[in-house]
Amino acid sequence: MRTTQTLVDEFAAAIAGPVRPAGDAIPSFQTGLVHRPAVVVEPLDSSDVAALLPVAHRRNLPLTVHATGHGLRAPADGGVLVATRRMAAVRIDPAQRLARIGAGARWAEVLAAAARHGLRPAAGSAPSVGVAGYLFGGGLGLTARTDGWTADHVRSIELVDAAGAVRTVDAGDPERFARLRGTGPADGEIVTEVTLGLLPAGPLTGGGLVRVLGPADEPATDPGALHAWLDWTRDLPTDVTSGLSLVPYPDLPFLPADLRGRRVLRVAVVVCGDGARADAVLAPLRAAVAADEDTIGPLQPSGIGRVHAEPESPHAYLGDDLLLSDVEGAGLDRVAARTGPMVVTGIRHLGGAAGRAAVVPDSVPGRDASYLVGALAPFGSGSGPEVVGAGPARSEVDGVLAGFARHATGRHPSFRFGPTAPGARW
């Protein structure tokens, strides 16, 4: 008879890292989906990963990989969860401008290590996100229009394949290398390390223009600031990457008083240049948005989280997106006029270096798109305007995206979240 303790003993005999019964559900940043495996294994390196796979195969156990849980993969209920948190070393080669990044590392750790050498990665907008999983969708970074997709900077990927062999995959294995950079690992593959090219650290200027558009439960009477941002992006130089978000905050006591019950517009901007360069390119946008708060200024790599100001507290959320050839003003008007349960709408400006063909072929979707629109709705148990179930959340998200569908060219997997999003990168 197979018992949990028997499984723990078998895995513990095979690897050097810790092994334990799962017990309660495994916490994730995405709390709407939970892992309930029988056993949690924490490999220390690729050798441990290679050693644990035969045990899982022999027992015919479902297996999933868990890093930060932002993009939670399909839960392996009753199976094995491979937690990569102990494979989080970050090694910088300043002469070659390379970072060797363990599969459990987060962007914050890479940013800090690279900054000590005057370097930075083409990182995303949230320092708490895991690097490896972020790269599998290509990685739409804060400087994407200048530096391209983060996948463009990947030099090699170390993984353990389904047969238990440790491989270093690079341009010499073009089909697998392309798949990993944009589509992700195949079933049975576990990535253990990524080698990423680094960039000079600066100067960078960035932050947000924040404006309250009125009460969240009433349609915005003046969507002009949204249209101004769209018009401003039409002829932007490639050293500027930007996006906007519109958030109708519920009236809840744990929120800051100036946000409660308010509809808030945030225009996020990063300029690969100094303050004078940023002021020149931002002048017409600043005049049109008339922000209540302007946080745009010198940007250190460690401070990238302030650009989009994304939440750092775990929560349940469902999201989807559309890649667009263009954005219609009617779609912006529809978002500004929307009332109802909380849905965060975000639009990111693509093109520039993000629109160029990859020098080393990959499978990143969206190189032919001009914009990406995403909608995200929280869900969970409870009551009140901020809490909806997964089914209603899906309907709210679909309703927002419908206003942009005429120019849709596809979807991007990295912006699809939740239990009812087909093809989502969990």
TrEMBL record:
User: Is the keyword Oxidoreductase in the record?
Assistant: yes
User: What keywords appear on the UniProt entry?
Assistant: FAD, Flavoprotein, Oxidoreductase
Q: Where is the FAD-binding PCMH-type domain?
A: 33-201
Q: Does the keyword Transcription apply?
A: no
Q: Name one Pfam family in it.
A: FAD_binding_4
Which co-factor is required? FAD
The UniProt similarity line reads: Belongs to the oxygen-dependent FAD-linked oxidoreductase family.
Supply the Gene3D superfamilies for this chain. 3.30.465.10, 3.40.462.20
The protein, known as: FAD-binding oxidoreductase
